[in-house]
Amino acid sequence: MRFTSILTLGLTTQALASRACKTDEDCSLNGVCRPEWSWPWSTRPTNLNLWFSRDCDCGSGWFGSNCGSLDLRPVNQDNGYNHSADAVDPSHPGPHGNSSRGGQILQDSHNPGLFHLFASQFANGCGLSGWRPHSFIMRAESRSRPQGPYYFADSVRETFWHNPYVFWSPADRKYLLYSIGVDDDAPQRENCRSINYTQWPNNISVASAEDIRGPWSPFEMILDSKEPHSANPSPWPLWTSKHRTSQIILGVEDNAIFMADKYNGEYLLRWPRVGARIFARELAGPWHFHQHEAFNSTVHYTDGSNQTLKRRERAKLFFSTDEEMTPLYMTMTTGVQEMVAGSASSTLIQPIGVKWREYERSLGF
Ligand SMILES: *[C@@H]1O[C@H](CO)[C@@H](O)[C@H](O)[C@H]1NC(C)=O
Ligand SMILES: *[C@@H]1O[C@H](CO)[C@@H](O)[C@H](O)[C@H]1NC(C)=O
Ligand SMILES: *[C@@H]1O[C@H](CO)[C@@H](O)[C@H](O)[C@H]1NC(C)=O
Ligand SMILES: *[C@@H]1O[C@H](CO)[C@@H](O)[C@H](O)[C@H]1NC(C)=O
Ligand SMILES: *[C@@H]1O[C@H](CO)[C@@H](O)[C@H](O)[C@H]1NC(C)=O
Ligand SMILES: *[C@@H]1O[C@H](CO)[C@@H](O)[C@H](O)[C@H]1NC(C)=O
Predict the structure, then answer these.
(1) Signal peptide span per the entry (predicted)?
(2) Same-domain check for residues 138 and 210
(3) Interacting residues of 2 by C-beta distance below 8 A, sequence separation 6+
């Protein structure tokens, strides 16, 4: 009875069907393109076509008609690592406490309730604008939740090292730490001024360690920076349980995707340009570029308030550990000021979608 009436409606109205997707690529590979049943009385007048229209069914953590937006959830004000307003040593030249940038979460391999945060921190209270040469790599710990709050644990590499990216490489059975920088031999610096990149280019180096607390091997340079801005390395191992490779893919700011057969091998250019968000089924492409923003600068807090930040950058995702790669948290650098003289910055950790609750429950939090 019901079916008959739909059919009648369907056949007697004009086609208004909008096909939301044709392939999974139209869903950014963050979801799948599925046939969708829609009922004429709950949508607009329609025809048979719309009953079988195809829509993106987004994976957990993603939303939007092309699954291109991160489903960021309200965040606790004290999440992450915000030590930008801590009291500073009066002998320090800067007022910005332990400002930080570009944090990344790792779960401890022995103690699942312990989380590590690797980030750039700025020495001497200098803040973000004095990043070159004041940036160094630090490790902080949280025993409460993956979201933090995190507390300073140790300095991984003294100045000048910046943009750390750490992951466990199953092929090498080691942690790999990618970073830009050089060792600064200068005596104690007396001001927070930055150094020109022509003096210290953004070359990328890698170090390794069997334990997340180190000791780390000396840095080996893997990418010589021809461009002033080829910073912000984003490496990822291509290893999966079905494809046990030591190959590493390395994305670089504004520029390119490189690939190497092993982490300390030769990195060859595989794709020359990186947009706002790019994805492909195969490394060889085709790669799809989307300028559509995955998130914006407004942060909603769990107490109902919100803040639109002046800086929200160097976002990194923490994925589920089941090879599904469900995004659970995003760490990001936040600053309430533009990058003016000084400028405090901190690291905020925001939950994504709904699966993080399950993850935290499974850890007993
Ligand atoms: C970090 O802490 C400072 C001082 O408590 C605060 O003013 C600032 O809003 C915090 N930043 C974020 C992004 O919450
Ligand atoms: C700030 O960083 C220094 C290392 O530069 C560390 O010794 C200190 O404990 C940190 N302070 C806080 C409050 O985290
Ligand atoms: C860095 O040095 C180069 C070469 O001397 C110069 O052209 C450039 O303007 C300098 N950049 C800054 C930000 O000072
Ligand atoms: C970094 O790269 C530059 C430019 O390509 C090169 O001249 C320089 O030797 C490298 N620096 C270090 C410390 O290896
Ligand atoms: C920011 O993104 C949220 C959804 O994540 C959206 O609701 C909001 O309108 C966006 N704000 C701006 C200014 O685009
Ligand atoms: C942010 O909070 C203000 C003040 O409570 C409110 O007027 C505004 O609508 C909120 N903005 C968003 C995007 O939720």
Answers:
(1) 1-17
(2) yes
(3) none
Ligand 2 atom with the shortest distance to the CA of 86: 13
d(CA 103, CA 135) in angstroms, rounded, equals 13
Q: Same structural domain for residues 171 and 94?
A: yes
Between 13 and 123, residue with greater pLDDT: 123
Enumerate residues 6+ apart whose C-beta is below 8 A from 3: none
In this structure, which residue's CA is closest to atom 5 in ligand 3? 198
Query: Are 151 and 236 within one domain?
Result: yes
Atom 8, ligand 2: residue with shortest CA distance:
152
What's the CATH code of the domain at 341? Answer: 2.115.10
Q: What is the pLDDT of residues 168-186, one digit of tens each?
A: 999 999 999 999 999 998 8
CA of 198 to the centre of ligand 3 (A): 7
Residue 14 pLDDT class (50, 70, 90 cuts): very low
Kindly give the distance from the C-alpha atom of residue 184 to the centroid of ligand 4, in angstroms, as a whole number: 14
Is 342 inside a domain boundary?
A: yes
298 lines ligand 6 (CB under 6 A): yes
Can you spell out the DSSP letters for 86-153? Answer: S---TTSS-S-TB-EEEEEEEE-SS-TT-EEEEEEEEGGG--GGGHHHHEEEEEEEESS-TT---EEE
How many domains does the chain fold into?
A: 2
pLDDT band at 5 (very low <50, low <70, confident <90, very high): very low
Q: How far is the CA of 81 from the centre of ligand 1 (A)?
A: 10
Distance (angstroms) between ligand 1 centre and the Cα of 82 equals: 6
Measuring from each residue's beta carbon to the nearest atom of ligand 5, which residues come in under 6 Å?
Answer: 69, 296, 298
Mean pLDDT computed over every residue of the chain:
84
Structure tokens at 231: 């910073």
Q: How confident is the model at residue 197 (pLDDT cuts 50, 70, 90)?
A: confident
- Whole domain around residue 51: which residue ranges? 2-58
Same domain, 54 and 139: no
Q: Which of 10, 35, 58 corresponds to the end of one domain? A: 58
Q: Do 37 and 156 have their domain in common? A: no
At residue 11, the pLDDT reads 34
Please check whether residues 180 and 37 belong to one and the same domain. Answer: no
